[in-house]
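We emphasize that the prediction below concerns an isolated chain of 197 residues; any contacts that depend on oligomerization or on bound cofactors are therefore not represented. The input was used exactly as deposited, without trimming of termini.
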Amino acid sequence: MQFSLIRKYGLTLAWVFIDLVALGQNVSNRGKEFWFSYPEHVNGVQSVMGIYISSDRNTTATLNVGGTSLPAISVPANGVVRRFLGSVPTTSDFTNTGVHLGNLADGIAPQKGIKVTSLDSVVVFAHIIYQARSGASLIIPTRAWGREYIVPSFGNFSASGGANAGFGQLNVMVSRPGTTVRVTPVQPFRSSTRPSL
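Result of the prediction step, given as a token string:
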């Protein structure tokens, strides 16, 4: 009798565990909704952000920059489509001046987000470049977002020292209005408005 109960409930627990593990593994960088920002760059709006969208099937994507939607984008299966945000209209699909987060010492910048949505799952990358400087990002879909993050950064320094010291930067994106965000810095903010803890 005891063996029968153990076998019965043990099998039930095993199925629950397998189901939970399967659900936990269903998060990736593929998705249908992405939000990201155009962070400060040493070259300001002279830099260009390339946005790269890829999918394993034919689909359609929409790019919204600072509240303005660009024309629908056809994404071919196993191909990559790119769009550029820059300050020169002849070489860019859209201007970066409305979404570039330059000179934002500490605060909230509404209508500065960049959003990609698609009919089928896609993967999104962003790459900011100007002359010899470059930085790329894998954009995480909103369905894979978490609630707690640790952000590593280099210390503030400059090769020439003095007043030209560089600063680490943290950009936080939210997809819903009214979201509360708490930042616990281990270094003081550049503006000295928030001390380290």
